[in-house]
Design a protein that fits this description.
Layout (H helix, E strand, L loop, with lengths): L3 E3 L6 E3 L2 E3 L1 E5 L5 H18 L1 E5 L6 H9 L19 E3 L2 E3 L9 E4 L11 E8 L3 E2 L2 E5 H11 L1 H10 L1 E7 L13 H5 L4 H11 L2 E4 L5 E4 L7 E2 L5 E2 L4 H7 L11 E3 L7 H13 L2 E3 L6 E5 L3 E5 L2 E2 L3 E7 L6
Parallel strand pairs: 4-5
Antiparallel strand pairs: 1-4, 2-3, 5-19, 6-7, 7-22, 8-20, 9-19, 9-22, 10-21, 11-18, 11-20, 12-14, 12-17, 13-14, 15-16
Helix pairs in contact: 3-4
Length: 324
Amino acid sequence: MLKFQSQTLSGQQNYGNAVFPLVLVADDPVSIEDVSAQSALLVEHLATHGAILFRNCGVADAQAFDDFVASFGFPNFPYDESLSNAVRHNRTPRVFTANEAPQDVEIFLHHEMAQTPCFPNHLFFFCGQAAAQGGATPLCRSDVLLRQLTEQLPDFVARCREYGARYSLTMPAEADASSGQGRSWRQTLNVDSREAAETRLAALQYDWQWLGNDALRTTTPALPLIRHAPSGNEVFFNQLIAAFCGWQDQRDEGTRSVTYGNSEAFDDADVQMAVEIAYDLVFDLPWESGDVAWIDNYQVMHGRRPFSGQRSVLASLCLDLAIA
């Protein structure tokens, strides 16, 4: 038996018989043993609903969040070993700050690390302090999005399916906290020299170019824009919206940061319509302090709304070796 009661939220969506997201409120703070004992059932709920918001589960700080995530038994996906471009800082070995881009910067919809060959299966977020205004986490079901794109933009979807995408990014020599993509190339590639960076990039089959100020411009091989989720659903799994709309800083321009896998440019009108369709499907997760959200990275895109006031959200990423 789950030690949670389901709750409704304004704007909650329904797909088939599944609400999105599922909201579970604990009658009393739950123990790690409780979560561990119910983890298999909770995994089934995640596969059905795509995202779960836990409330009143007794998580109050980074270590308690670490313990909560660890109770599911998934292998950790260490941030310092990832190819993510976001600036983040670890609080525990498996818990780190969410993207530290300035609070007035929108982080657009994306699947975590879909612009790289290595990505997590599960995302956990913990809200230590909700923002005074704004700061919601928009969520979008990518299987539903793909169905709507197929109906409204069939030629675009066919090209996405055929070619995939290549992502280009300029990484600075030192971390740039003013950008949502400001992680340095040393941190991103987990290396300490140009030679080691080139060895890592060659192994990843990336193209690269050294620029002034010791910056590094990289381009991925063609990566899928459409994947099969472990559930069997096809999903629009990529970073196209985030790259096109949000990869804007002194080093990068979003519309030039992503191309089809054959290096042809996307039609701006196609992508803009895809963005509009995606945001029409969004549910804005309304954080309360103490909340924990669990997101299936295959099925659900997420982002971050701008905010004012203090906001503290921590993250943890996990693999699932059964489906990785």
